[in-house]
Design a protein that fits this description.
- The protein has 490 residues and is of the alpha+beta class.
- Among the domains are: 80 residues, Pdz3 Domain; 85 residues, Orthogonal Bundle (Muramoyl-pentapeptide Carboxypeptidase, domain 1), CATH 1.10.101.
- It is 28% helix and 21% strand.
- The strands form five sheets. Strands 5, 6, 7, 8, 9 and 10 form a six-stranded antiparallel β-sheet that branches.
- Helix 6 packs parallel to helix 7 and helix 7 packs parallel to helix 8.
- 42% of the residues are buried.
- One of its GO terms (biological process) is signal transduction.
- GO terms for molecular function: endopeptidase activity; serine-type peptidase activity.
- It is found in: Cell membrane.
Amino acid sequence: MDVKILTNEHNEPDKQEKKVTISLFKFIITVIGAIILTAAVTTFALIGGDQKTVDNEAPKRSEFIKLYQVYDTLSENYYKEIDKSKLIDSAIKGMVSGLDDPYSEYMTKEEQQAFSDTMSGDFQGIGAEISQAGEKIIITSPLKDSPAYKAGVKPNDELIAINSKSVEGMTTADVIGKIRGKAGTTVTLTLKRGGGEPFKVVIKRGKIHLDSVESRMLKRKTALITVTKFQEGTAEEFHAALKKMEQEGMEKLILDFRNNPGGYLEEAKKMAGEFIPRGDVLFYTQTKEGEPTVYNSDNPANPITKNLPTVIILNEGSASASEVFAAALRDNGKAKIAGTESFGKGIVQTATPYKDDSLLKFTQMKWLTPDKTWIHKKGIKPDKNIELPAYANSHVLNPDDVYTVGEKNSRVKSLEVGLTALGYHTGKVDTTFDSKTEAAVEKFQQDHKLKVTGQMHGKSTERFTELLRIKLEKNDPQLTGAKKMINDMK
C-alpha cells in the first residue's frame, strides 16, 4: 500500500490564518508564484501501488436524470456555443463541493499537472515568490540565481501586468497560471517599485529546483536541520544532511518543521526510518468500517541517529506528514517536541485518476499515531510550549500603502507591535495611528536615515519589515528553547 500525503492550495481550512505573517527566515505566503508552494494542507493517498485509471461506462441511474436533463437543455438551448467539457468539469466540482470538505477536490488535467509539479520540487518558470496583499500582487522575493533574480526583480515589487494584461482582479492562482511556462520561453512583467513609475521586465523562463532540506551546525556540536516540506526526494536530501552533519561533529540534533505543511507520506516514512528500527510502528490508518491498519518501519535505523538526542520544533503551520513524522519519533521515544501545538491534520484522501489526466480525491480514512491517538483538529502538543513574540505573527505591511495619523485598522496595530519590538513605540498598542505612533515613526526614520515624514510608507516600510525579520532570526525563542531542552537531555 503506497500512501502519499500532499499539500493543496485550493481549499484553505478555517484554522489556517489567511494573513501574511513574518516567519523565522522568510515571509509565510499563501502561494509561491511560478514555483508554487502552499499554505493550506490536504492529505492525499494513492493506494494499491500503481494506480489504474477509471474507464468504466457509467450505468444509467435514476438519481442522475435531472443532471442529464440540465446538460441537454443547456447544450441544445443556450443562446451561444458552450464548452461542453467545461460543463462536465463544473458539474463534478459542484458534486465534490457538496461534501463540504476542504480536503476533497476534483482537478482538471491542468490543475492536476500543476499540483504534481508543485510536489516534485522541480519547476519551469521564473522563480519568484509572490503573495496577495489586499487587491495587489506582491513579489515577496526572487529565488537566488533564478531567472527573476537575474532579471533584476526585487522583493516588494508590485506586479501590475503580465504580457501587458493587467492583473487587477486576478488571484494568485490566476497569476501563477500566466507566469508559468516552458523553459526557454519568455514572459513580460510590468512591475512597480516603491512610489516609482511602472516598468517592464522581460524574463526568460528556466528550470528551477527548490530544495526542501537545509542544514547547519550550531554551537556545542548541535546540528540544525530544517525541512520545509515533504516533496519527492526529501528523504534523500535529509539522509545527505544527516551524513554531512555527522562529518561536522554532530552530537545533538534539532529538527525544524515549523510551517512545514506536509507532503508525501512516503518521504516521511523513509525519514522516520532513519531513527526507528525495522518493525516498529510508525502510524495507523482506519476507514469508517475497518480496524486500524498498522504501518511499520521497513528500514534499518541509521547508525548516525543511535542514541542521538533529538528535538523537533513544531508550530501551528506544521501539518500532515510533519505531524506523522513528529508523532512517530516521539511515541517511539526517539525525540522530544518543542514549540507550539501543531495544525491537526489527521485524515487521508484517496485519489482516483482518469484517462484524461484529471483527478478526483476524497477523504476516505483517518490516520492515528503509534499510540493510536487521532490528532485531527487537535494537533500535537509539544513537550515544551514556547511561543513566539507578538511581532512574529504581525501582518506584513505593504510598502505602497501609506499609514498616517487618523487611521484605524489591524495593520496599524501590527505597525505599533513592530515599533514596540524595535524600541520606538512606548504608548498603548491598539488599532489607532495617533500622535505617539507618528512620533515613533519619525524617530525610526531619523535613526535609519530615511526621509522623516511621520508616515510609514515605501522605503520606511521596507526597512521596518527587514529589521523585524532580522530581529526574529537573531532572537528566535523557539530555537533557543529547543537548544536548552536538548542540552538538558541525557
